[in-house]
Amino acid sequence: MNLQRLTARIKTPEQLLWLGLALWWVLNLLQAGLCELANDEAYYHMFAQDLAWGYFDHPPMTPLLVWSGSFLGGELGVRFFFTLLQPIYIYVLWRIIRPKEATRRDAGLFLLITAAMPILQLYGFIAVPDGPLMFFTALLLGCYKRFTERNDWLSALGMGLCMAALAYSKYHGALVVLLLVLSNLRLLKNPKFYAAGVLTLLLILPHLYWQYQHDWVSFRYHLIGRNRDFEWGFVSEYILNLFAIFNPFLFPVFGVAWWKNRAASPVLRAMSCIAAGFILFFLASTLRGYVQPQWEIPATFGIIALLFGYTRERPRWRRYTVRIGWITLILMVLVRIEMIFNPLGLHFEVFDNRTSYQQISQIAQGRPVIFDGGYTQAAKYEFYTDGKAYARPTIYYRTSQYELKNEDRAMAGQPVIVEVADSVPRAQTLSLANGRTFTYLIDPSYRPVREMRIQMAPLPTDVHPGDTLSLAFDVINPYAFDYTFGPHEARIGFVFRRLGEPTQVFPLSGIEAQLPAQGKLHLETAFVIPAIKPTEYQAGLTIYNSPASTWFNSAIFPLRIE
């Protein structure tokens, strides 16, 4: 009876839409508070402890949203503002594509299609950059719709603000803007659009200045640091992920709708172009490495718009879409239950975090814990134990925001727990509740090497196995303690690093010297190029001594072995 009364009170499609979005938001809110953090969420929570205009691999919008919800505490505090973004951007999308004579059936169809996108079910509550990226993409499309209808300064101002917010959310926002312009090249003849671009540039100057101060670290990482050799597996996995995140039973219908689409307005043409552009751009990106499934998420707006417009006018396809929508909803509820309670006992990054990191905390007994490259592990340790942790950058994995943090300097000389490889003598191993192991040493007086700098001339770009390089370099020690180099002390290694392959380090011979505190040491030696795989490498020098190691201490040089 109550349900019948509620249904009777729903007079307009907007009322039905807001009811559906409210229920969806409550579900996301419960999920946000009851589900443990994913790896990247903990990493962004670490960012939020020190707000800045930029970070090693991301712009600052996500940490700002995490920080804003910190008053709530726990996982809900990390995710709260991300749960608010989704119902707003879905409503904005509805206002963009809403038919003039929309009915409640249309609103119901729109809700089902939207809820049937698996990627939206997940990215409606987790604290990652894709939430604000979607939010500001929707607002940009809304402003663009008004701009193409009215050509007024208010719309241009809104577009400028949204484009800047996209830049602060995720660098993929640049692709959104580029594809929007490609869908309507007449924008390039409109002075108001250029004014919007100038406003965007002015607003993102603080972030660009931060990048300049940090040697454009984010751009170097995303444009160069992730490149890998082509593998057919990247293409096949990309295509499978594409069907999975956009619903394998609806994505083919989208393909048909896109092929037959004749966009009736510039904004619909823009969404169609963004959808196809993102899919094709990241398909091409598989030539240079693995593509993460969520990178195509802005395509969701065009997919929903085309599916909605195509199926609402075709009863057979409408019935098919409604059935698929309800089946998907039931499956998504089961997935959400698994993510909260884990009745299947799966080992995944959102399970058993609190128990696992408390296990490490018990052996640490108040001592700082230094993880070997595991930047998300260090962030989770601090979140779930309130203990002190650091992730030393390592040539065997990758560097991270911890490269720009100085907590390891404060740990110098202190007793610490250091994560090490299984092969390190006297290492102990702890089995964790999440199915992983933690191998560690207790270092009574930790001496980091991250801030040591090796100044050297550039390496030759092309070498052959057996070639001898004459190396001359200075080692600069910023720390307040001496360092001894020798076969049984700290060593300097020549690094050959290639993404997707094991990093190889060869110790330099004949180096035995004392490096005084806050001093400089000049060294010269010869290095013979080993007989390793002929290809291109990142090469340079690193300082290492168990249990301390780090990223490159010298500059990184491109080096090809012929």
Key descriptive features of the protein:
five-stranded mixed sheet, 20 helices, globular
Brief write-up:
This protein has 562 residues and is α+β, with helices and mostly antiparallel strands. It has helices spanning 2-9, 13-34, 39-48, 61-68, 74-97, 104-115, 118-122, 130-150, 153-169, 173-182, 191-213, 217-223, 232-245, 251-260, 266-285, 299-311, 315-341, 353-364, 375-385, 407-411; strands at residues 369-372, 389-392, 416-419, 428-431, 437-443, 453-456, 462-463, 468-476, 483-485, 491-497, 504-507, 513-515, 520-528, 536-544, 557-561. The protein contains 20 helices and 15 strands.
Rg from Cα: 27 Å
What is the subunit arrangement here?
single chain
Strand content: 5-15%
Q: Tell me the span between the first and last alpha carbons.
A: 79 Å
**General shape:** globular
Structural class: alpha+beta
Give the helix tally: 20
Poorly predicted spans: none
Determine the fraction of residues in helical runs and give it as a percent range: 40-55%
> How confident overall, as mean pLDDT?
92
Strand order of the largest sheet: 2-1-3-5-4
Largest sheet: 5 strands, mixed
Number of strands: 15
